[in-house]
Amino acid sequence: MAILDSLRKLRRWDEEALHFVDLCCGSAMTATFLALSAPKSTVTAVDIRPPQHLPHFHEAGIANVRYLCEDMTRPGFLEVMEKALLDVALPAIALSVVATQIYNRFPQLVLGKGGRASDWAHVVAITTRGPEERYERWAHGLAQLLPEVPVLWTSNSLEAAHWDSQQQVEVLWLLAQLRVPKTGFAAEHVQRCQENAARISEELQPADLSRLAWSLARLQKLPAATAQALAAQALPQVEAFEPADLARLAAALCRFLLGLDMSESVLQSRINELRERPILPMLVIDSMLPGQRLVFNSPNKELQVLVEEEQDIGVIGMVRSRFGTSPARHGVSATLKQVNFNQWELKALRHFKVLGPAEHDGDITRAKVEWVNDETSEEDVKLAETLVPLVDEWTATLMEMGKERYDGQLADILKDLGDMPEAKAPGQLAIWVAALVNPIPALGVAYEIRPAVLSASSVRERLEVAIEGIRGSIDHISGKRKLF
């Protein structure tokens, strides 16, 4: 709680959307406090304890806590943590990443995982002694470990992995002194680093800032002799710095040591990955196609949580095989809104494929998806052109035989689906045709082809499913060949 109190002095988070990562959350008291005091933020609580040992956040009306059941000392944890940070896609406390690295590289820091409390008390204890003696103790303890367990830094600081123990300790010490500079994406991250540096630089002692200048020189790959000369000269220079210069110096450390000085292209690729492979909460209800609208009744409380999250959700149906039924691997994103107390409306938007296994966040299932972007050929376009007259024939036959289940049903279907795509967008046209013959609510004049259209491995296969489906429906409506 003392750390949180210090954080709030640096930056108030009441009205901000941030991402807090509570490592080794235990009974999640800290996570609960953060979730309540920062309602617009997301809190990821990480621990090895089973979820049933934690508070039931959703039942308590606390919807902004995610629990990650993970062993921080196992191989691969860093990759899991990186994924969790990217999934939330909010500015995260930078030292959450650094702490993850340190815990993973130094299992002795997690008591009971390879070290005893007495072995490390002299290293991490906060005493009344001065900063110089605290630093020497810290450096001595960590230097014993560093030769055995190299520190792996971000891509901007790979040189640090080859430094000697003392150089790496300098970096770790400065990270501890800097605490938690807030990071942001794209053009905002440099400005935010400087804003936070202006605050924290006021609390750094000249000796800390002289180490900062020395470490920064090493990170900029200056020759060792130059860095040593800078170390000897840094203290009097730093003491003479104006506040603005101190802020620039601290901001430079934020960017270099914490790996925030990413090129615009790297940042943009990260953002693009989040856009192209988002994490969506999943609703298993029925196969839907882009443009379709489904109104349904359900007392499910999790639906209210999804509405409050104000993000698109994933909608998938069930598929049958000789092994039974299972959730489909293809679906659509959709908007979800509440019509009245227990009535909800889904509006399907975009075709996706589910990547990897789903994750359970309380009673809500989430999964990473990848948008399906069609690769078309001239042959696909030519095949799609054969669908256009079939659509005209189908609509004319439907109206002639009076197969609407209520007056104006076809008009309502076309209103939801919008204009028919042109043949030069063959994949979209195939999906539109499938949604036409398998509408919501159903007409009952065609075989169900929506799952096959969604899971088709190519545009040609999708077109073939749509053509066969609409031709079979025309024959069924006209009475030429009944389907059922």
Strand content: 15-25%
Give, in order, the helices and strands. HEHEEHHHHHHHHHHEEHEEEEEEHHHHHH
Main sheet characteristics: 5 strands, mixed, barrel
Q: How many separate helices?
A: 19
Total beta strand runs: 11
Share of residues in helices? 40-55%
The shape is: elongated
Question: Separation of termini?
Answer: 67 Å
Number of spatially distinct domains: 3
Question: Strand pairing plus helix content: what structural class?
Answer: alpha/beta
Please, what is the average pLDDT? 72
Strands ordered across the widest β-sheet = 4-6-9-10-11
From the alpha-carbon coordinates, what is the Rg to the nearest angstrom? 29 Å
Task: Note poorly predicted spans.
Answer: 106-128, 145-165, 175-194, 254-264
Organism: Symbiodinium microadriaticum (Dinoflagellate)
InterPro entries: SAM-dependent_MTases_sf (IPR029063)
Protein name: Methyltransferase domain-containing protein
What's a quick, concise take on this entry?
By secondary structure, the chain is an alpha/beta fold.
